[in-house]
Structure formats: C-alpha cells, structure tokens
Amino acid sequence: MSGAPHGSYGQGFVERVVEAADRAEATLGADAGAETVAATLCAALFGDVLGYDPTAYDLDGRVARVRDADGDVAVTFAAAGRDADDVGAAVFAAFEAASAEPTVRYVAAGGFDRLLVFERVEPDEAKGEGADERRTVAGVTAVTHTEIPLARIVAAGRSGRLSQTLRPAQQLAVAKLTALRPAEVSAVDADGDAGTGNTGAPARRSVADDDGLNTLVGTLRDCLTDLLAPAVEAAQARLVDDIEGYDERAAELRDAVRAARRGDGDETAAGPARARLLAHERAHADARALRAAYGTWVRGAGRTGFTPSENRRAFARVVAFQVVEEALLDRVFAGADLVAAAATGDALDRLTAFAEEAGVDRDAGDLLALARERRTAVYDRRAPDLAGWALDDDGVCEALARTVGYLDHFSFDGDHGRAVAAYDRLLSVAGLHGVDTDPAAPDPLPEALLDAAGYGASAAADADAGARSGGSADADAEATPLGGDLLDPAVGDGRYLLAAADRLRSGLADAEPVERLRAVRERLTGASPDPLACRVTETRLLLRLLGDYRAARSTDPGVALDPLPVYCSDPLIREGDAGDGAPAPLAREDYDYVVGAPPATLRRDVADGPVADAYAEYEAAYYTYDTSALYVERASDWLAENGTLALRVAGRFRDTRFGEKLRERVPQWYRLEQLRELSGEAAGGTPVLLVARRFRRNEAFTDPNEYEPPTYGFTDAEGLDDAGVRRSSARLTGEHWEWDAAGDDGIGI
Given a cut of 50, is residue 140 above it in pLDDT? Predict the structure, then answer.
C-alpha cells in the first residue's frame, strides 16, 4: 500500500490498526465507491494487521468473504462508500452474505468513518437474558462485538500518542478486532466448539518450541496492551469519580453517627446511623479497594514525582499485568499437574451456564477467584493483590475472558523451564516501570556481584579473592560458606535473588528436592516497598522452583510450598520509626551476605511524611543524599561480624558534600575489598560496586579525626573487567577519598 501515515505509531495491535487505516484512507479520494473501499480496507485490516494471506479472502463487489485455515468462511465483510450517509446498506449486505455461510462467526461492516463487528449466536439464544442486545438480519442472529469510530480514532492518531489521545474505551474497541485473527477464527468449528484433530482433543500450540513460545509472548503482550490495560483504565476512571462522591457521603454519615451518640447517651440510638454508614461502605467496597491498592503502589514504587494522570495510566498497566500473570500462572500450574483444573474458556462456559441455572451472575472475574482458591493448595502468595478491585468491573472481566480464550490455544505441558522463559520474555515486552528484564541480553552484574562477595565461589576463587583483597587464603577459608543467609533488600525484578537461588540450589544438586526448597526458603530473603517488584520476584523464583516442588510432591503429596521470603516492606524503616515496623526478617542482625542494587532516589524525590522522617534519622542522610547511601548504613545493622556487603550504589558519595558523613563512618563499619565503577547512571553519578566486610560489629563509633583504620589494601577499578589498582586503607579519611590513578605502593600488608 502506498502513502505514509500522518501520525506517529508504536508496535501494539491498536497502533497497527490505526496506522493501517491512516495509510489506507490517504490513498482514497472523497468519492471512492463501496467496492474500492472494500478492497482497500481488506488489504489494510485483514492483510496488513490481522495477518491473512491475500488468498484467504474473496471480494465480490462490496462484500468480502474471509476464510479460516480449513478453507471455511469465518468472516463476512461489507463496505460503505466514502459518500454514504450511513453503513446500513453495508450491514445488510454483510448479514446477507453470512446467511449463505453456516461457518461464519463474525459479520463486519463499515467504512473509514465507522466500523461495526457482530458475533454470530444461535437463534434460540436471543430468547434469553440480554435479548435486546441481539439482532437478526437476513436470518442471521448476532450480537455486537465491537463498534469503532474509525475516523475519530485516526484523527486522534494524527494528534499524538494513542495512549494519550484515545480514551480507554476507544482503545478497547479497536483491540477487540484481535478476535478476527486467523488463529482465533480457526480455533472454533461450525458448532462453536474448539477445533479438534484426529484425537478429538483441542488443537493447541506447544510452547516447547521457540515459534510457539514467541507466539505466546506476543499474544500475552497484545492482551495486556490492547485488552486489559484500556479496560482497567476505564474501570479506574469510573471508580475515581465514585470515590469523590463516596468520601462526601461517608463524612455526612459519620457526622450523623456522632450526633446520634451525643443525643441521649444511648449507644443503641446510633445503631440506624451506623447501619447506613456500613451499607454505604459495602456499596463502595471496590472504590475503597482501588484507593488502598493505588496508594500502596504509588508509595512503594516511588511515584511521588509523577503527575496523577501518568500514575493512573502506569497503575492500570500494573494491574492489567497482574491479571495476565495470574492467567498464565494458572495454566503453568495445570501443565505441571499441580492443580487439577485451569481457568480455560471451557471452564468459563461451564461456570456461566451453572450460574444462569442458579439465577446468579458469574463471569471471568469469578473464574479467576476460583483459580486463586485452587492455587492456595499449592502456593499462597505473599505479594499484595493490586487487582482485586478491577475484577468487579464488567469491562475488565470481558477482557479477561478473551485473554483466557487466547490461552486456550497453547499447551503448557512438559519442561517447566519453558514457563520460566515465557514469563521472563513477557517481562521484557510488558513495559512496566522499574522492570527491564531482557533475556536476550542478561545482566552480568548479579553474577559478578556474587563472585565478588564470595557467595558460592569455589575454594580456588576464595583464595584468589583473599589475595586480591590483601588477606590470606587461610583467612578467606574461614568465610561463611554458601549455606550462609543472604538478604537482598531491594529486589527490583529479582535478578540478584534469583542468581543467589541458582547458586544455592546448584550447591545442593545432590540433595533431595525438598531440601533445596527448604534451603531457598530459609537462607534467602528479599524485600522492597514496591508491590510490583515483590510480585515479579516472587513469581520468577516460584517458577524456577516448580521442578523441585513437583519432584517433592511425587514422593510426598503432603509437601507444601510455603510463601517465599519476599517481603513488601520498606527495609529502611526501622521498627518503631514509621508504621508497625519491619517484618522480623528485616529486623535480623546476623545475615552473612547483603547484596543487590538499591534505588538511588534523591532526597528531593522522597515525599514528605513518615517515610521521609524515618530516612532523616540516618547518619548518611546528609545534605542532598540519595537513598542508596542509606542502604549502606542500614546494612551495617543487618550484617553479622565478618558478613559481606556487595551493593551497586551511587558513587558520588566518594567525593561530594553529601557523602561526608558516610565517608566518616564506612571505615569504622566495613573493611573495604573492592570499589569498581559500573556503566550507567545513579542519582546523577556513576554507580559503583561496593564490596566490603563488616567489622567492629560491637564497637562504638569514634571521632573520625581520631580514628585510624587498620592497614590493609583494597581494589579500586574503573569497571568490572578492569584489574584496577591497590589502594591503602590510609586513604579512607573522613575528609575525602580522593587519590591519583597510580595506586599505592608499600601498603605493608
């Protein structure tokens, strides 16, 4: 097709539809007839976007018949000319064409102004509930699948980014065209049942091969971006308005309760007023749940520096991701034979049919709730639920139902490692704030950091580390072995905790599976105030343990997988500083390792309130500090004597005013082993890998002008691969840590 689009588009399904329509519209004159519009739209939508081969659709005037993989007509489409007043004639033509094709599932009609899609149903279904939403034309009964104001959407695409110019409902309307893709229409036969092969089982695509895995990841990305995120954003917008009215009415009802209590002093007099308040709160439970989940996420993810509209869009995507993740995880559990049933399209049909007989409403949200209950017998999540409120919304449930249906096309039997790959690939394309996992280019830092800390290193590596740090091989031989306890206080996307878990399990390769599970649960701990980071880390770790868990249950069906040790809590909040204090694992003072990449959030970006007040209690909270410095100080509490610190932190503490207090204290808390500059930026400065041993654990802090650190050497380098130079501990003065590039001779160790 010729002609360039007028807008700027992305790679999502909605963007591709709008771009194709923009290109197609630019090639036609204002007097283009129905036949020309039909040919142009078929090539743009069915060919360019939905992925049909040109031989899959036949054009007969204004009418096109689109065939599935078996050669059966699955969609009829009729176009209206550019000068048509409405699309009525096109709608009738499309239905008339469908009347001669018993295999048709969808009837579509329209032009560049408006596009309508109807889903065919059995005539007797029109007698039940919702009959007013059905129409019968030319003997074909159908319900509206989607209605797209195409001209308005194309104009929005020319005005800016579609995520900002299109309302969520408009995005969802376009996204529903995914149901017309070849894989979707080919998966259902003339009777509306899943397509079957010679075995009679549903034809599903295995994720065991790369092509199937790629298709799965693309499908999940489209469900997230084009179906669930717009639906969640629309539900959120509705409830935000509801919250405003709820607050005003709730305040009035609370005043009424207080007034009733003040009346004659009889508590029973306030009973009716309290009943009205409780009824009001129950009626708005989903709005209050949204406020709680949104507040937890904004605070934990450090989103105080963003605008409300930016935060609402980002939160909608996080919630949509949780729903997609849960649907995927349910299929993985079923594929691993850990649950007897999964949330499938067939299960949804059975649930809704049963509910209709019982006279109650049930939808995909109820199906997901049932799936959660089943999974608790296998694993009960520790990470907070951010999506519960959204599952009460009809639009979200409809998008979830379509997602569940798309997952029906895949088989998750076999190696659980493919589920690990699928989830990691999904993270790489999900576009989540703070999550940048890229399986194609793994981060070398977690392994380098654990090597530097001596976690899981061989005896030869330990001896080499001792020589490089100025100590003896014998001294390092006394270091805590791999079995020591490790804390990652800022899990992010979980890469450091996962690397530690892989080393721990590798060291126990000859042990029973249940012992490996117990070791991960008891020896590793992760934390973050960000509920998304906790969820992602927990899920990634869980998927890697499924093989061990399945093996353990094969010999002992009663084996339980306790919640993994990933805590949604701000690890910088000491007990009593703010809120109810930290979980017990974050109050420990005997960890053998503290590793990770804590956030380097600048002081100006920490919102005023109890958290900022708690941060201000740190010695390192000096001048324009960043939070990574506070983690260095907090680790001095967590680590046992001779415990190892290995953190990626902002390196500007070495020679700036804000690092003055930290420079004074680090020599008295730690014996440095390495300072290595890393690529990237952190709080406006080059980050460094800081590796050190905790010492003087039970000794008081002394005046830095009077303190002289013991004589030893440590490595200072400009990168992970740089051999670096040796520095003397004499350089670690409270005033500055500046030195020339030549290193120090005669350290005298």
Answer: yes
- Domain architecture of the chain: domains with CATH: 10-186 (no CATH), 210-430 (no CATH), 444-458+483-694 (3.40.50.150)
Please report, rounded to a whole number, the percentage of residues in the chain having pLDDT higher than 90: 37
* 403-437 pLDDT, tens digit each: 998 898 888 886 778 899 999 999 998 989 888 88
Give the contacts of 172 (CB within 8 A, at least 6 positions apart). 226, 227, 230, 231, 234, 395, 399
pLDDT tens, position by position, 528-545 = 999 999 999 999 999 999
**Residue carrying structure tokens 């003997």:** 139
Straight-line distance from the first to the last Cα atom of the chain, in angstroms, rounded to the nearest whole number: 74
Closest C-alpha among 63, 66, 99, 57 to residue 78: 63
Q: Are the C-beta atoms of residues 380 and 369 closer than 8 Å to each other?
A: no
Mean pLDDT, residues 112-138: 74
pLDDT of residue 126: 47
Q: Which of 705, 733, 732 is nearest to 716 (CA)?
A: 732
Say yes or no to pLDDT of 168 above 50.
yes
DSSP type of residue 472: -
Per-residue b or e along 442-469, where b marks 16 or more CB atoms closer than 10 Å to that residue's CB? ebebbbbbbbbbbbbbeeeebbebbebb
**Residue by residue, what is the 3-state secondary structure of 92-156?**
HHHHHHHHCCCCCCEEEEECCCCEEEEEECCHHHHHCCCHHHEEEECCEEEEEEEEECHHHHHHH
**193 contact partners, CB below 8 Å, separation of at least 6:** none
pLDDT of residue 158: 83
- Alpha carbon separation from 315 to 14, 294, 433, 450 (Å, rounded): 20, 7, 9, 33
Do 228 and 400 meet the contact criterion of CB atoms below 8 Å apart? yes
Count of CB atoms situated within 10 Å of the CB of 59:
15
The DSSP 8-state label assigned to residue 196 in this structure reads B
What's the pLDDT at 94?
93
Q: Is 490 helix (H, G, I), strand (E, B) or coil?
A: coil
Full-model pTM:
0.77
